[in-house]
Amino acid sequence: MAAPNADEGERTRLSGRFTRRRFILGLAGGLVGSVVSVPPTRASPSAASVQFDDCHTAVITGARDVETLSVYYARQQGTRLARYEIPVTETELYAYRPLLVRHNPAHDRTTVRLAARGSLVRVVIDHAAGDRTGHANAEPGCVPAGFNSPPTATVTATTAARSVHDGETLVAAPGEEVTLVSTATDPDLPTDRLREAWDLDGDGVYETRGWRVTTTYAEAGPVTVSHRVADDFGTLSVATVTVDVRRPWRLRRKVSPPSLDTGDQFGTAVHLTADTLVATGPGDDDRGANAGAAYVYDVVDLSRPATKLAPAFLQRGDLAGIAVAASGESLLVSAVCDDEQGADAGTVYVYDFADLSRPPTRLAPPTLRAHDFLGLSMAALDDTLVAGAHLDDERGSFAGSVFVFDLADPTTARKLAPAGLAERDLFGISVAVTDEWLVSGAVGDDDSGPQAGAVYVYDRADLDAPPARLTPDDLAAGDQFGRPLAAAGDTLVVGTPFDDDRGSQAGAVYVYDLTELARPPTKLVPEGLVPGDLFGYSVALSAETLAVGAIGDDGGGTDTGAVYVYDRADLARPPTKVAPDSLAPGDLFGFSVAVAEGTLAVGTVFDDERGDDAGAVYVFQQ
Question: Topology of domain 152-245, per CATH?
């Protein structure tokens, strides 16, 4: 018998394939056609089910010809290893190395078995109904112990000026664009199989998708931003950054009167009220070399010329303006080297804010003696003025004292010098006053080590009672705890510019609750301090803000200086560091600070714009 023609054999094979394919497609078309009437928003329910005998074998029943099996395999990183169309005509064996699939139409049973090492993870049945696709058994059916490793997510947050990474804090201004980028890895899945989402506002709801998003924040305050990454098997990774939205401190004006001259050291002391900025220049020579002067500005319009205060009876070397304070209608300017009560005994000038042209009243208690230096520090509240005389000798050479004046009757003054003072304690080198307390620093106190310092707190209602004495447990020799003080409400701030926590003389600040002095204080030592920064050289408080000068900061050059601004309501928040670009080495920006709501004034005593060490004051607005 002759061999069949090759072309005929090929036609026969093609015809067989076409007939089988047409039969399969015909059946499939009939089934699909039968469900076209189902509303397109719903998929036909599937009767198929999957059961795992173990992590190597799955048995599927109830599968139909329009359904497919998608098999996920552990050794292939959880990705789909095979997609298998359910046979409709005969029993066949399919080998997808290492996957074996056998279908038995008589028993409506399909077996999927793994022939090589590894584990089946999922067998998903997809069924079609019109233009919709439903799923059965979409969850992991068998996950062997130790199989799944969680994903790892990382986040970077960036503004135009700064970038931070996981767990860090990004400072941004209201309305400033913040770009958030996340990356993720998973040892079991490729990145495109991971599911991700952002919680941009910290409310716990993951409402935004995308590996890179840009957003803005209108309200001030910290926001914890989270990016969540999940794999197919229910494990998560969450990366976070904090976006700390703050109103920036913008430079309004650099103040330096045209009359400044070399050595005036304008900005030695600054004070802010609702209407005025007061800045002093104790090196002013109008009334003689270093007689001193004070300048009063309209804080609303800093372009207006200042009123200069230099009374006619000032003399050479009086150093008027070493300290300044204000209360109500009274402006107080000290002259520590005034000689009326003896050489360098000191005095305080009291001006009437309502009429600065009037000659000031002089306060110099008759008990003052030569070299007491009354007025190196001052604080005022209502009708009370507290002035330190840190070189007073009543309790020993340079033990110090404090005078308390009633401004309504300034002819007499109460002198405070606690019994425990010793030589060179320098009690009165700093003072502060609130409605209930009167506070004085004694930086030369040696109880915790030579010049470790101490602070005394009096009850204003009973100044005869012994004061509370504050010395933190971690004080060390030379810290000079109490060199500057600031107090408002129930809060006391104590500067310790020679603290060594961040290196020699890096500095620190302690914050006390005056109602609970037995509680340990909060110690502030911001990140980034380095030896010699002298953080805590000056301090100032307002209702919302704590400002701290660090005159040794080298960010703009050696000893250019900086000021750190804290939120009083949340001292744990990192402070804002303020340091204008125009600073020059040796300016000592932060030598003095004053803060009112939304306004910050910073003295820069060695600024050279008007002459060597003529000084300047920077005024910032938030």
Answer: Immunoglobulin-like (2.60.40)
